[in-house]
Amino acid sequence: MSFLSRIMVLKSKAHFNTGAGGRDAGGAVPLTFEGTRKSAGGQTRNRIAIMIGAFTVVYVIIGGRLVQYGMTAPQTVSSIMRADNTVASRPDILDRNGEVLATDVRTVSLFAEPHKIVDADEAIELLSTVLPDIDAKATYKKLKSKSHFQWLRRQLTPKQQSEILALGIPGIGFRPAKRRFYPSGTVASHFVGYVNIDNRGVAGMERYLDNQGLADLAELGMTSVNAKLEPVKLSMDLRVQNIVHDVLAKAMEKYKSIGAGAVVLDANTGEVIALGSMPDFDPNNPAETIDRKTKSDMNRVAGGVFEMGSTFKAFTSAMALDSGKVTMNDTFDARRPLYVGGFTINDFHATRRVLSVTDVFVHSSNIGSAKMADVVGIEGHREFLTRLGLLTRLDTELPETATPSQPKVWKKITSVTVAFGHGVSTTPLQTAVAAAALMNGGKLIQPTFLPRTPEQANENAVLVLKPGTVADMKVLFRANVVDGSGRRADTPGMFVGGKTGTAEKVVNGRYAKSVRFNAFIAAFPIHDPKYIVLTIIDEPKAPEERCGVTAGCNAGVMAGEIIRRSAPMLGVKPRFGVDGTALLESY
Predict the structure, then answer these.
(1) What is the Cα–Cα distance from 425 to 309, expressed in whole angstroms?
(2) CB 281 within 8 A of CB 291
(3) Is the separation of the CB atoms in 450 and 234 below 8 Å?
(4) Domain that holds residue 364
(5) Are residues 346 and 487 in the same domain?
(6) Which member of 228, 450, 461, 540 has the lowest number of beta carbons within 10 Å of its beta carbon?
(7) pLDDT digits (tens, 9 = 90+) for 220-259
(8) How far apart (Å, rounded) are the C-alpha atoms in residues 233 and 110?
């Protein structure tokens, strides 16, 4: 037997008991070996204990994290705006009669979560079926970015939302939003203003609302979708505003001008009843309708400064009469040109005769107005225009109000040229406000775009003229419409008074005779003026009837049309007869 065979035999005898009765052949009690079974059972129990312990630890960790997350304040991710900000509300804007000028409309905005986008090319291809104008390159860049949130399109229509939902694109979603809607469209764009994509006021009274604290409330989340805000009522009468807009649009076309504007002002309260500026824009879609070339977003009435031409002769006459140094019985020699500081002053409508105060006004004499200013003096002239608010910025709600410009040093030539409307630039709205003071008893009332009662207006009104001066100015205004350049502004039964202004514009540093800025100031009814109407037309061309390009042929016509159509809506009853005491009756 080999060595290995012997080892195997001995090993088998050592592990197995072969004797009868549990004893071996020698009678000794054998050893029983159970190590393998005991070892297996112990391992099983250890494994079970380990598994129980592991599960216990896992559940303790999960429970602890849940408690931690529950007690941690929510964090704002910078790339995702708060829902309250996204749907920030704005109050409705109404006209003085309750007509809606601006309101919020619920809509949705489309966003993407780039980390969830499976196939950016496919997503863009599908979206283009609903949004054909989508910028594929820019959108692809957004979908492939490492951010977790990207806006794709703001303010979708319900139909677009429904069609995109039907596409079932992973990683694409919608957020509630608000869109500002302006029912009147372009009609009141410069008055009401507009908002940006985030529903924040950019211009007009919309911007005024934000400046009054609405923007701060939105930041605090107090203007959410469910926040009910009180409507804001404006001084505007939408009916009159429609008339102004229509007249301006037709004037732009008829006179081939680069701009036009008008304002209707309550002479006794300072309320702006209507204000229009052309070119204009659609506040529902300002990004596509604002033309930077024509400056269609510029409010020419409140935000533009112009030399107002001969309309300033009204203030020159009022200044001379109010100073007490000139009376209605005085005369001024206009037979020869006036020479001042190397400059020659001539009359556009030369009469070559001695003129009364009324003649100076009716014939719009530059020479006569210059001599009136000379009687008052340089400092007195500047003080008077400052007193009427023509040289300082208006204090009113509309943000787009410009600051007038004037020479830093006033010399005699300055006073002489300002007397007939050259040398000082101011806004048409300021000119209308100052004209109201000439008609309402001599009270300078700052304009307002919000409703105001006569009692409230009188609280802050400043008396700037004597009653006798106001009475004389009413006579001059009416005389100019009856016998002067304002004849085309006259309206039967309304007793209109007014003053034209034809100003040469500065081109390349010099006054150009062929390029004009025309204006007309009107007041009606002149015996007890209720309203001021001021119209402007920038660089008008002669119409087909060859009337000419002076203010009486365009700006005066525009003012007369506004008065004729709006007076009944404003409650001004027509009167007839020489003194206006006769009423028109029908049987």
Answers:
(1) 9
(2) yes
(3) yes
(4) 241-566
(5) yes
(6) 228
(7) 555 555 556 899 999 999 999 999 999 999 999 999 999 9
(8) 33
